[in-house]
Amino acid sequence: MRYFFSFLRRYLPPYKSKVVITLLCNIASAVFSVVSVALLIPILEIIFQQDSEVTTLLPWTLDSKVVINNFYYYVTSVKVTYGPGYALLFSGLFMIIATMLKCGMAYAASYSNVGLRNNMVRDIRREIFAKIVSLPVGFFSNERKGDIMQRATGDVAEVENSVMASLDMFVKNPVLIIVYIASMFYISLELTVFAFVMLPIAGSLIGRVGKSLKRQSSEGQAKMGLLLGILEETIGGLRVVKAFNAEKHIVDHYSKETQSYCNIAKRLSRRRDLAHPMSEFLGTIVVIMVVWFGGTLILGGSGTLFFSDSDNALTVAKFLAYLGIFYQVINPAKNFSSAYYNIQKGMAAMERIDKILLADDHIFENADGTPIKHLQSGIEYRNVTFSYNGEIDVLKNVSLKVPKGKMIALVGQSGSGKSTFVDLLPRFWDIEKGEILIDGVNIKDYRLHDLRGLMGNVNQDALLFNDTIYNNIAFGVDNVTQEDVERAARIANAHDFILAQPEGYQTNVGDRGSKLSGGQRQRISIARAVLRNPDILILDEATSALDTESERLVQDALEKLLVGRTSLVIAHRLSTIRNADMICVFHEGRIVEVGTHDELVALGGYYKKLHDMQAL
Ligand code: ADP
Ligand code: MG
User: Which atom of ligand 1 is nearest to the CA of 414?
Assistant: First the structure.
């Protein structure tokens, strides 16, 4: 429960006023509810023809005794003048008004509660998304995408339910229970003391069931995350599934996991559903005990009325009203116990959400970092050693100087560390050994935003968003005009094919750009880089996924893009980097050869070997 309170401390403060409103409305509603039940007493007294006539009107004050006395006075005068039937109607009218106020206030309370609840959930959603965006890329290589999605959706929904239940529990039910119990004490002290000896016994039984609920709930959500993951991967990789005739395999896998989710969910619901029948059953036992005890008090004529001076005996009418109020207590008490269960479930979900929210942003934004708008002299990697998980060094003591305005090509076998090398520059990963300098200053000392603003990136798989071509090109750049976008598209050799699309620049590209060909996607991502007009350009096998025809178009676009910039170009096909100012050959995490194309061919080492292989 401590975790639950810290959760409230985190998300409740902005909505203090809403909490107060809900609380006040609930108090009012509880008071009117008691009044409406208490009005049963005069009504029953009229019916039972009990002598409760009052003939003196006291001067009005807010004292409850005066109010009750005067109410009886008016009931008596209606009864004397018009007969008992009208007296009943007269009391009934008050009961209707009290009930109306009770219901109205209850609605006002839940009205305000709805605002509170949804605002809190919106805040959590926003916080998760902002956190996902700010977390380093490395965080996600250890997580399943489906599970992350489940946390951001399913777990948040679970928290919403628990918040709803819990706010009821903390704002509404205690108020109701206190008001009801106070009035029960008011009617009969002995009976109420007796009833409350019984309740803790029932409460402890209910608490026992709730214990294992939290762990099971967490298991259930994790399983759901797994299911979402399979779903996501399958939709994304449907072509592979079909091509390998793996439908049956993957369907079996999915049904196995759904079965195990189904089992957990059943266990969970059944246990949670125990709350209601159990509290109802235990509640009935308590009620019967109370009826028995109250009945003996009446029959023995020895019941005392607390605070009451006129009539000491517990009358039948009062006892029935007492039972009426007692019955009202049972509902909030029941809700109290199911709220407890829901909180257990909700907090399990919140813990899963916190795995994201409280995750360490390894790459800390340097708040008072140096601003940088343009590259002045160059980039330098100095004795950089890097490993992804602290085990195998993927880069081993690598040093490289990239002077401003030069094109540096990186070549080497797959897995030799080229992509890792360029990913370190925008700080997708942070290094511990060695340093990377831009204009002689460690990149960690710059503002992260400025640092990344210096570079443009074109990768092997051009990642487009499910949006229009225009928005994909203008992505992340403020204040762009149609002309800017078109100019960028022309440089990227994309303008013509974009115009040929059904809606030109406003054509939607589909999920991840699936409505376009690989070369078209690539040229849009080049246009995106052109529009940013970065000083440093990083190309990671930008053409290797393309056929020769579109490669030529893309290559041509890239060459226009490279003019006048400092660039790191990873190339699969050596022909594309023949003109590089310098070529670095990577081998098993080291730079083993450096030079121009001609120098390296003449050297007869790794580069010559790669070159000869491609010449074949
Ligand atoms: P290249 O781009 O030269 O083909 P990479 O830089 O992608 O090579 O990979 C270098 C090595 O780092 C490979 O052995 C690869 O298995 C490993 N590696 C790449 N990305 C990750 C990652 N996110 N987590 C762990 N290891 C990785
Ligand atoms: Mg690579």
Answer: 4
